[in-house]
Amino acid sequence: MNKKYIILGVVLLIIVVLLGILLPVIFVKDKLIITNFEECVAAGNPILESYPEKCIAEDGGIFTKQIDSLDQFQGCQIDDDCIPLPSDCHPTSCINKEYESEFTKPEICTMIFMYEAAYSPEDCTCENKVCVNKNLGRTSLEE
User: Fold this and answer.
1) Are 51 and 87 in contact (CB under 8 A)?
2) Domain extents for the chain?
3) Are 85 and 70 contacting, i.e. CB atoms less than 8 angstroms apart?
4) Does the model's pTM come out above 0.85?
């Protein structure tokens, strides 16, 4: 009788170990493995309103959109050429307004306020033929 309980215990232990190994493999097999920003977006994950954009995967992984440099969009002659980067809710960069159509404005933004953000064209200036944000380095409204 004792031998039967030992054999039953060993069989149950083997079943539990196999289930512990196989169940995660079965459920993980169906999940998408996300390795970059584009795959994260395609899987329907949320995108942060930042520049560059960031996507948060279900497993908590954060993927950043790879972008070309803004240098090609920042050339200017006068201050009136410059506007805040339209694709960002709280832009810290300025571009030449002739390139505004190259960027997509966010549909919705948070109500936070960032001292360094350029929220209006007056926050941008043309220095050495490059559009720059006058607010960079700012830590309060007084500056």
Assistant:
1) yes
2) 30-67, 70-133
3) yes
4) no
Strand 62-64 and strand 82-84: the pairing is unpaired
pLDDT tens, position by position, for the chain (143 residues)? Answer: 688 878 888 888 888 888 777 776 666 545 678 888 888 999 999 988 776 678 888 888 888 787 767 888 999 999 999 999 998 889 999 999 999 988 888 888 888 888 899 999 999 999 999 999 999 888 877 65
Identify the helix (H) or strand (E) that includes residue 133: strand 130-133
Which 8-state DSSP code applies to residue 66? P
Q: Name every residue whose Cβ is closer than 8 Å to that of residue 138 and which is 6 or more positions away in sequence.
A: 115, 116
d(CA 21, CA 131): 57
